[in-house]
Each structure stands twice: as C-alpha cells, then as structure tokens.
Amino acid sequence: MPLPPANALEMPTDWVICQIGAREHYAVARGFAEAGNLHCLITDAWVPPGHWTERISQSLRERYHPALSEAQVRSWTASLIRFELSARMRKVTGWPLIISRNAWFQQRAVQALAALAKAGLGSGDSRPAVFAYSYAALEPFRYARQRGWKTILGQIDPAIVEERIVADVCKRSPQLAANWQPAPASYWQAWHDECGLANQIVVNSQWSKEALIQAGVEAFKIHIIPLAYEPHPEADACVRTYPQRFSPTRPLRVLFLGQLTPRKGMDAILTALSRLLDEPIEWWFVGPLSTSIPADLKRHPKTKWFGHVPRSHAARFYRDADVFLFPTHSDGFGLTQLEAASWHLPMIASRFCGAVVEHDRSGIVLPEVTPQAIAEALLRCVENPQLLAALASAAIPWSEFSVGMIAEHFENLAIEPPLPQSTPA
C-alpha cells in the first residue's frame, strides 16, 4: 500500500459543525456523531421535545433531531426569536436581513468556539476541524485559523455563477422577477474571503464544482460529497400504479415542490403549462411563492397552489403525484430529488444540479431548461403511462446518500492536497 503524501494529516477526531437552520436535517453533524467524532454542533436554534419555544411555530419544532439528543449543542433559540421579531418590527427584509442574520450567528459561533477552546478543545496534539456552511463561515474560520485548526467550507450553492444565471433569467422574464435582487458586492467579497480561509471546500455536485472554478476558486480545494438523506419510513412501501391512458378524469399529476422562483425554472414551467392546457395534466405547486403568477394560470382549474407546507407534510404530495418536475436553472444539489426518489416517483430534472436522475432509467434529464424541453418530456409521459411505471421501478443506490457515509467521505479531506506550484520566473 503506498504511503500517504508527506503533508498528510490524521483524520481530526474533534469536529465542530456550525450551521444556521436545520439544513440537510443536520446530516453532517449526525454523520460525525454516528462515527464518534462530533465534538459540538453550533446552531442558531435547538428545540428538544417539550421546549417552550416549540409552541411558537412549526418551523421551530423542526429545529431538532433525536439522533443528536446526546450530542453537545450550543444554540441561542430565544435570542434568535428576539432577533427575528426585531427585524420584523423594523421591516428589515431581503439582503439586509440575510446579511444581518449571518453576522448575528457568526458572532455567537465565535463566542461558542472560544468557550470550547477554553474548555480544552484543541489543547492536546489533535487538530480540531471546524465545518461551516457558506455565507456564515467567515468569522468562525478566522478564529479557527488563528488557533491552527482545520477549516472546511460547506458550499451550499454554485455561488456568484448561479446569481448571474438567475439575473439572466429575470432579464428575459421581468414579469416573474418579483422582488429579486442580486447580492451586494460586500456579500461576495466575504464569500471569497471564506474560500480563501478554507483548507477544503465541500460541494454537493459536479455542477457546483464547475461553477466555483469558473468563479476563481482553486480547483485543488474542492471536493464533491453528495447530500445525505434518510427516506421517510413509509416511502419504500409505496406502490405506484398508472392508468392505461391519462384522461380528464384521471390526469397526469405533475408535482413541483420547492421555492416557486425564477431560479427553480418557473419561467419555463409557466410557458410549458400554457402550451399544455388542452392535455390531461393537473399541475400541483407546493412551496412559497416568490414570483408573479399570471392570474389566468393561478385560477385555472388544472392548477393547484398549496403554498408553503411543513417538511413533515410533504410526504403526501410525493405519494400521490405521478411525476416530479425539477427544471432548476441552478442548484447546489436539489434535496427534493432524493425525497421524490425515495417515494419511487419518476422525475423530470435539470442537469444543472446533483446527478440523481439517470436518463430514461429513473427519470428524464432535460437537455436544457426551456418550455419546449419540459413540454416534450411531459407529453412523453402523457402518451406513455407505462414509461412512468418503468421509471418508478428503477432502484436508486441509496448507499451513496446515507448519513453513515458522511464521516467516510470526509476522511478523504484529512489529506490536504499539495499547494499548486508557482511557475519560475
């Protein structure tokens, strides 16, 4: 067996995970907890069963996971509530709110890191690792690097390249842009600084890696680790049946679940919808509406608009739909793809996201995100219900996406790649 390179590092035995919200259902923290390497989860809110704040909102009730019940967690739930109420009273929204919230969290995360260091973290020969998600990692990374700790950035999206794509979509379809605004220059400068301080950067798809390289991030730092997901306990038992033919009384039920925004392909979806109104198709839209919908489509009997639903209520839509539509212009991965796949729901998906769909085996991969491509894919499904039955029967390699694989994936980050060699003058 070949020896590791001279600059190899041992796998850190102490990992600190910093994250706002319940992103990925706390999968990274859970993965390290399962491997016995989680030192602490630092998060904005943590609401165990019976906590007084769980009565305030459904979203707060989801800020907990039983797999981390024995883990050390640092959080500021009451402070977060005060922050959000203050922002609402002052009518702070959009980018000012996002940037302010990120700064609020980073300040407290650094305080938590300092307390952990005072309690002994990093005092021995071990080199702790701090994992933090993009846009709220700068100050924790500055603190960690000052102490010689390792820093890993979890890049949640294709960054500024994605913003440019969305800007182009909004320029082409200004009627759908609603209140979309690009991030201020300071936001992207802080992100570039995060990337500079990160020893390694984790992305969830090849698409994100290509976008970061395009944005000037050093390729040698970037590692692809897919999202982790645990299927709903009832999902595997779901049995799909399709009619011999779709009709007005039994239409093709198309599900879109997620944020209804230009980035997610709503421009192309609405145009395709308009072209297919004479077809036996029923459109289900589940998620917060962040774009303007033409009144005739909003009221059309073939469209159903459910708005935001809690994560725990999404299962019935996956169970009852016939096909899942995911024509995103850009996504770091697209966790809803795994959610749909767990319910054996065939997908029509973009290629600008995580590679979950295998074309004509587990779904249809759009060659481009256009109304024509979406309409053609849906017409294939309408005209051939048995195609959907075949796609629904395809097995997904769930071992690639298991929480138990997270620590194993991250072991590869323990070996830092050599710095690029400078070219002699």
Write the layout of secondary structure elements.
Elements (H helix, E strand, L loop, with lengths): L14 E5 L7 H9 L2 E6 L14 H4 L11 E2 L2 H13 L4 H25 L10 E5 L4 H9 L3 E5 L4 H14 L12 H13 L2 E4 L2 H9 L7 E3 L27 E6 L8 H10 L5 E6 L8 H4 L4 E5 L7 H6 L2 E4 L8 H8 L4 E3 L13 E3 L5 H13 L1 H8 L13 H6 L14
Parallel strand pairs: 1-2, 1-4, 2-3, 4-5, 5-6, 6-7, 8-9, 8-11, 9-10, 11-12, 12-13
What does this structure look like?
- By secondary structure, this protein is of the alpha/beta class.
- Mean pLDDT is 91; it is low at 1-9 and 421-425.
- The chain is globular, with a radius of gyration of 23 Å.
- It has 15 helices and 13 strands.
- Strand 1, helix 1 and strand 2 form a beta-alpha-beta unit.
- Helix 4 runs parallel beside helix 5 (138-146).
- It starts with 14 loop residues before the first strand and ends in a 14-residue tail after the last helix.
- The protein has helices at residues 27-35, 58-61, 77-89, 94-118, 138-146, 159-172, 185-197, 206-214, 266-275, 295-298, 315-320, 335-342, 371-383, 385-392, 406-411, and strands spanning 15-19, 38-43, 73-74, 129-133, 150-154, 200-203, 222-224, 252-257, 281-286, 303-307, 323-326, 347-349, 363-365.
- It has two domains: 15-228 and 402-414, Rossmann fold (3-Layer(aba) Sandwich); 252-400, Rossmann fold (3-Layer(aba) Sandwich).
- The chain is 36% helix and 13% strand.
- Strands 3-2-1-4-5-6-7 form a seven-stranded parallel sheet, sandwiched between helices. It has a six-stranded parallel sheet with strand order 10-9-8-11-12-13, with helices on both faces.
